[in-house]
Amino acid sequence: MTTELLNHVLRQGDRALVLSHRLAQWITHAPSLEEDMALANISLDLLGQTRHLYTYAGELEGEGNDEDYFAYWRDAAAFRNPLLVEQPNGDFAVTIARQVFHDHAALLYWESMTESADVTLGALAARARNETAFHLQHSTGWLVRLGDGTDESHRRAQAGVDALWPYTSELLDADDEGELRSSGLIGKPIETAWHEAVADTLLNAGLHAPIDAEQCAGGIHGVHSEHLEPLLHEMQHLARAHPGASW
Amino acid sequence: MSTSFPHWEVFVRARRGIDHQHAGSVHAPDGETALRAARDLFTRRQEGVSLWVVPSSEIVASDPADDDAFFEPAADKAYRFPTSYELPPEVDQM
């Protein structure tokens, strides 16, 4: 069971870290100074969640690995994040569509985890839920404004939804975590609630999910798209060039 | 983009019982977005318990050219200042 829980915690930590890094890539490139701050704040919240999750992963693993090990010293195949969060930022509308899909799933996940039988995850969930609720306000607020805005912003928002929809099923309940769920360590399934919530957001934005898009998955099993390795290279090269450095 | 978004003045209440104070301004397309931007910029370090945003264009301000007419007359009206009263010692400071 510890192995399953460790795997679950790494999936969540890797999801948060990779998305945190993607959002950090917006810094100084966002459409406005205010948006630069907003994306950076969300990125930092996700990084904070990552640190708790990785530290806990180190405890579960019991081999003396700390948060830095999990962030800097594993290669792409060891990462367990869903494919969605490693997808490139694209334009602002693509990033916002990615956030909407992610934030709905993350909020439902953390809400369900406040009931977890695992004390550490339950405590983290109480905090992460509040952070995520604000992230969701940010992303859905923008998607509605873009989708319901000008012809150009609508076109871009729909393009973002279309491009990222194939990566959404993997955000939802992993089918190899049934034992964790039945033992109460992870919360109730989120798939139905996610589809309702996302449909509601898309409706408000005047957008629609693509009808016959095939779903891609694999990230949570370590099978990634070509986009993860360059991201990790950028994120890890300093730590690997100067092992053990501190400042 | 920010150049085309209107300006919003941000007021933060630091804690319950004291007034909202002007903290700065943000650019945003609408009030809700302005509130979220204000939260990120002005209350991330527990600086506040309540936020107001007001369109800058709605603020009616005094004209610096009128400074003399508006503010100067106050200076030579000593009777508007309670300087001639002696404070009872119990009051100590006021």
Explain what the structure shows:
The complex is a heterodimer of chains A (247) and B (94). Chain A has 247 residues and is mainly α. Chain A has a single domain, classed as Up-down Bundle (Ferritin), CATH 1.20.1260.10. Chain A is 65% helix and 0% strand. Chain A has helices at residues 2-24, 33-61, 67-72, 83-86, 92-113, 119-147, 151-164, 178-182, 191-205, 228-241. Chain B is built from two helices and three strands; from the N terminus they run E-E-H-E-H. In chain B, a hairpin with a 6-residue loop joins strand 1 (7-13) and strand 2. The longest helix of chain B is centred in the middle third of the chain and has 12 residues, at 31-42. The termini of chain B are far apart. The chains are: A mainly alpha (247), B alpha+beta (94). Chains A and B meet through helix 2 and helix 6 of A and helix 1 of B.
Write the layout of secondary structure elements.
The complex is a heterodimer of chains A (247) and B (94).
Chain A (H helix, E strand, L loop, with lengths): L1 H23 L8 H29 L5 H6 L10 H4 L5 H22 L5 H29 L3 H14 L13 H5 L8 H15 L22 H14 L6
Chain B lengths: L6 E7 L6 E8 L3 H12 L7 E6 L11 H5 L23
Antiparallel strand pairs in B: 1-2, 1-3
